[in-house]
Protein 1
Amino acid sequence: LFDLDRFALHSFNELVKFARESYEVYDFHAVYRAIYNYCVVDLSNFYFDIIKDRLYCDDEAARSAAQTTLYRILNGLTLILTPILAFTSEEIWASMPHDKEVFSDSVLLNEIPTYEAGLVLPEAELTRWNRLVSLRDAVNKALENNRSQGGVKKNQDAELSIFVKKEEDAKMLESVDLATLFIVSKVTILQGDGEGELMEGAAIPATISVKESQAPKCPRCWNHHDEISGEGLCPRCARVVSFLS
């Protein structure tokens, strides 16, 4: 699995823990609110948004990692929902493939998933992800502000320059595939001051500069890239297509 997949499973594991504890005291409303917030914030606004590109355009190994993560979340989430939405969960369960060790005839014959210590991220890794998520929120705000002023129409048309004060922040950010995380075509990390929108409220205070990419656009993934093949594809898409042909 990718780092992003492991973070997604960590977040789901925390939902499992909270749901089981709430069911033990019959606090169904707390479970409902936790599931709702998880689906909107952790899944739709974050994980789903980022992995769409991987599912549509990447190679089989990368797609399988996302699909494995999605299946584990779907399986567990359906079981957590069952005491509240029994008939809906039963419909979902009937449409899913299942492992041999579960009761496939009915979701009601299975147990709610348990909290898995193996899915818990180390504290340092979790702190790193929380900082990246905070910076992503700041980037989305900068992109939206740029769009409202007549700038880039789509995030994938954007190139970002992110200025940070601390050297350790710059090194950490340079080790991350930020273009994928932010759903833009290119991200450049710079240390020091620069022109752009100052985002002091982010866990990593940064100045974010947004501009429209002038690089050619790949017609398959819609990302801009400086290196376009003779078929008009970016390097990743050219590699993936070569295996398909």
Protein 2
Amino acid sequence: MTITKIALASTNQGKIKEFQEIFAPLAIEVIPQQELMVGEIDEPFNTFIENSLHKARHCAKITGLPTLADDSGLCVNGLAGAPGVFSARYAGSPKSDQNNINKLLQEMQDVSDRSAYFYCLLTLLRSADDPQPIFADGVFAGEIAHHAQGSNGHGYDPIFYLSEYQATVAQLDAQLKNKISHRGLAIQNLLEQLKRFNMLSNVP
């Protein structure tokens, strides 16, 4: 099965843009789920892999298309891995990147260990009943800055500091971020698996 079109089980505009940019050179069209009349669903599980599979199956069942879902989050070592799977709604509903950042910085005020990592778990289903989901993950290590810097990216990017670049992720250009980020690494992992299963028609 060669994939040319993928439904993306996400409404996050930043993620949608990243996936479309990365898959475009492979001649794979990434269609956000809202354009296919698929609404958001709850993420009831406590692990990234369960939430990712849950979202992928829901979207694939409605659209009938191969579907990609991700569950990702920021895990802060000094906060015992929080916010983790609750990263998107860390400050409550409705979702707000700025409120999440403000809450995390407040929680980190008296925390000495500021090391952290982003984790991304991707699930690709050829159909809702696919007996062999393809899973791929990526880890992106850094630390929590004391204040926000930069205007690129989304989510916690303005406070995720990379010492090797002397910058936050929000200060990096999109091309570099897509290469080194948790999502970029997970996608590279995913593409290797798609090549192995002969599911790509345009391999760079």
Protein 3
Amino acid sequence: MQVLGIDVGGSAIKGAVVDTATGYPVAEPIEVETPQPALPQTMIAAIAELVRSFRWRGPLGCGFPAVIDKGVVRTAANIDDDWVGIDLRDRLYGATGCACHVINDADAAGLAEMTFGAGRGRAGTVLVLTLGTGIGSALFYDGRLFPNLELGFMPFKGGPAEHYAAAAVRTRMKLSWSRWGGRLDEYLRQLERMFSPELIIIGGGVSRNHGNFFPYLQTRAELLPARLFNRAGIVGAARFAAGR
């Protein structure tokens, strides 16, 4: 089955038609800039523009940076407050004419890793973290997703955890890999106390450089870099839509 997967991010909205049996895009992804400010009307128009660029009329999966409840946006931590209460599934259908299914963006990335990537075939408790501007999180038990966990916003060190340990913090504060790795290790230890995962998968663009910071992470859980990198959100959104 082929599904158009869309990954909505802070700087870009990316999409690709995905073979949901293999997890591979059938053509090169296309992206458009995320409008600023990220208001509902302008963002939905940008997503619709992306869909039209594929001349797509089939099913559509969308990973979106918010808590999603039956297609409705419930939080707005990194997007405009006007999003809260918007039925994104319904609005996307109206703008594109496509059957749409919406999932939290980190949950989409986690679903892709569990289906096609580092978590494939793994039972027990698996925690997938995406490290970038913020920290996305997805928790699985025996392959079953617990949606909308949003552990990047967990209170930690006097503020949201992502303000202390996200990959963007290393760049902004010009931290060495060892200093940032130490911060990340503190955060991971807290997550281990809470969830006792057997496997932690680290995703996001920084996972390509995992050799620079994995030596500073002293987790009890097995630690693996993600395999799908920047296509995880697209692939997971498509896979979610196919399953619906």
Protein 4
Amino acid sequence: METPSVDRASWIARFFGGADHASLPAEDLADLAAELREDCYPAGTPLFRVGEAPTRVHIILSGAVELSCVLKGRQIVLQILRSGDVVGDVPLFLRMTEPCDAVALQDSRILSIDSLTLHRLLERRPRLAWRWMLSVSTRLADTQARLVELLAGGLEAQIALVLVRQAEHGVVHLRQSVLAELVGGRRPSVNRILKGLEAQGLLQLRYGQIEILDEAGLAAVAGLNGQRSRPKQASGSRHL
């Protein structure tokens, strides 16, 4: 029977090995996996809070984590992280405090590594350090692309874009209040637009989730020129 560290190495290889860049050597994966700690975070439990000194880097194994901050007295959702996403490394590398709150949106399983161990690991594993640099760079590029996409359209296009990007197997597990925070809109306006999209047969509203009925049509509303949603990338182009 496989040990937990072997299971983790296999999972990391699927997400982080990558076909777009050179795969990580097995010994690098095993070394990283051996240092990862797994914790369960019930929904509503914080991984860290804004202003705290970073002590661990987190990799989402399952579930979802919400990144948010308070701006001018208003809670703003910055991003929803899901399986394979990494958080906490940039503040660690830059020696700055955490810029936002990270809270489990659903019951989540999180892998993490403490800061000192990660530094030592990257020092002795240069290919892993290179891969991690690619991860940070790609996440930054994705964030910039997301900002451009959100700023390019009106509220309806922004909502459609978030739904396309967040859908998993045709379902978006987001409350309307969270969706409103993600696009910076008021909940009544977001609810009105969602009902309009539902009337067009593009989606169906359910309690706590939204079912996508016409992904291509929703992508067109988002201004994606009829493209299908960008797939969840298990190749590591967003991650390690």
